[in-house]
Design a protein that fits this description.
24% helix, alpha+beta, 230 residues, Neuraminidase, four-stranded antiparallel sheet
């Protein structure tokens, strides 16, 4: 007892802080329930965010930020462009972009339009009517696949690269290389082969580009049809 008293006296003399008061526990208040909350509010038809953007690269003049993105769960990955001066963002490619180049792109675009229309129709149907429509769509797809007329999914852009000095880029779509300028015009198709080209890179002076095909590396100047194997 004497030892405890001396220890307490020493702590007080040294200016030890008094014991803290017990915390005040607030009474629990139940959350306010919403009468209008629906299942669609928790699980929307389409997600708020798509896949993570990738291949994020600045243009040579640091004005444009380009990246590959698939927002809202859409099919295929496209090139998106953010303008740092205006703050605007726009989509540079889509399945419609390749209708002049790819025979299947038009059928795919038409298929997506039909599917979008069907989705809108389903919203106003009962559960039984919705199931009948889904079964009808499934049989239609099976028949088109059997006849070899089913439009494939949109492949999208696999990669892109900026030029060294100009605001233009090269990108790869379904194994072919395209050139795209920032003037709003359609892309220019640079290769059209049965083989797949990849990894395009502009030459130092931006007057041509390098690319890979199988195990080889090649060079092609703009405006020329002569491909040089390195």
């Amino acid at each position: 007892m004497i030892g405890h008293a001396l220890l307490f006296s020493a702590l007080v003399t040294a200016g030890a802080a008094p014991l803290a008061s017990p915390p005040v526990i607030e009474p629990w208040v139940p959350p306010v329930l919403r009468d209008d909350l629906k299942l669609e509010d928790l699980f929307p038809d389409r997600p708020f965010f798509g896949r993570t953007a990738r291949n994020v690269e600045w243009s040579p003049d640091d004005r444009y930020l380009a990246f590959l993105w698939n927002p809202d769960g859409e099919r295929g990955t496209d090139i998106w462009l953010y303008d740092d001066r205006s703050g605007e963002m726009k989509r540079l490619t889509s399945v419609e972009t390749f209708i002049p180049f790819d025979p299947t792109a038009k059928k795919t675009a038409e298929r997506y339009q039909r599917e979008k229309k069907r989705e809108e129709e389903r919203k106003n149907l009962s559960e039984e009517e919705r199931k009948k429509l889904e079964e009808q769509d499934r049989k239609e797809e099976q028949e088109l696949r059997r006849r070899g007329e089913w439009a494939p999914d949109y492949a999208g852009i696999s990669e892109f690269t900026w030029a060294n000095k100009k605001n233009e880029m090269l990108f790869v779509y379904k194994g072919d290389i395209y050139r795209l300028r920032m003037d709003g015009k359609e892309p220019e198709r640079l290769t059209r082969t049965s083989d797949s080209e990849r990894s395009p890179k502009f030459t130092k002076d931006d007057d041509g580009f390098y690319f890979q095909r199988d195990a080889g590396v090649y060079r092609l100047k703009f405006g020329s049809s002569m491909i040089e194997q390195l």
